[in-house]
């Protein structure tokens, strides 16, 4: 299977960034925005109410439950999920993603593992990038650093993190997040490949391409 993300023929490449909680996905995306990276950042649709300071179309597309139902029923969601035990739902509208890709613009989706797997099903040409911590100890520090949660909550969080780390072999490329700026630069390189070697990243924090026998 090739993973050119539609980069040939003038199309943009679709990148999906995922990884365990606490690995720094949002921080990396914030750095990409700060550096005005040549990417289009997908905006999710959500059924929750807007919070103070949020603007429709910037942080989220705020939609009603009925509109969300319609988008799901009509196949307009690239992926979606229930959040906080069903209190609301969020998902990635497919149409704007496709429009930007068709215009030759790379698109970045920041998703959880379930979302990344859903995109793989809908768009097998997407390049799935797994963000990994420098070490297990670093991730533990990030997940427990506040020290305000009960031990059982911390234990569940760490158990979940181990499961999430085990998913790295499902991904095409892995980046170890040693340095936020360097990780952001490498994502830009992946979004704008000069040749097929972009998918066979050398070390410098990379896991490398998914093995041929990895699960889909």
From TrEMBL:
Family statement: Belongs to the guanylate kinase family.
InterPro entries membership: GK/Ca_channel_bsu, Guanylate_kin-like_dom, Guanylate_kinase, Guanylate_kinase_CS, P-loop_NTPase
Known EC number: 2.7.4.8
Class of enzymatic activity (EC top level): transferase
SMART domains given in the database record: GuKc
UniProt function note: Essential for recycling GMP and indirectly, cGMP.
Binding annotation for ATP: 19-26
UniProt GO MF annotations: ATP binding; GMP kinase activity
Reaction(s) the record says it catalyses: GMP + ATP = GDP + ADP
Full protein name: Guanylate kinase
Alphabetical UniProt keywords: ATP-binding, Cytoplasm, Kinase, Nucleotide-binding, Transferase
Keyword 4Fe-4S attributed: no
One Gene Ontology term, aspect cellular component: cytosol
Domain Guanylate kinase-like: 12-192
Top-level lineage group: Bacteria
Pfam family, one: Guanylate_kin
Record has Transmembrane as a keyword: no
Subcellular location: Cytoplasm
């Amino acid at each position: 299977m090739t993973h050119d993300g539609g980069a040939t023929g003038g199309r943009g490449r679709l990148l999906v960034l995922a990884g365990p909680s606490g690995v720094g996905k949002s921080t990396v995306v914030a750095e990409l925005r700060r550096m005005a990276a040549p990417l289009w950042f997908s905006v999710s649709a959500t059924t929750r109410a807007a919070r103070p300071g949020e603007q429709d179309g910037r942080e989220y597309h705020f939609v009603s439950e009925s509109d969300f139902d319609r988008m799901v029923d009509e196949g307009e969601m690239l992926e979606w999920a229930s959040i906080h035990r069903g209190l609301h739902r969020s998902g990635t509208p497919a149409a704007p993603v496709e429009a930007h890709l068709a215009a030759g613009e790379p698109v970045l989706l920041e998703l959880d593992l379930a979302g990344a797997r859903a995109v793989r099903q809908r768009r097998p040409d997407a390049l799935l990038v797994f963000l990994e911590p420098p070490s297990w100890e670093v991730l533990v520090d990030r997940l427990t650093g506040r020290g305000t949660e009960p031990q059982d909550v911390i234990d569940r969080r760490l158990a979940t993190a181990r499961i999430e780390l085990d998913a790295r072999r499902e991904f095409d490329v892995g980046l170890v997040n040693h340095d936020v700026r360097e990780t952001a630069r490498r994502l830009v390189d992946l979004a704008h490949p000069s040749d097929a070697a972009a998918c066979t990243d050398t070390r410098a924090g990379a896991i490398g391409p998914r093995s041929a026998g990895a699960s889909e």
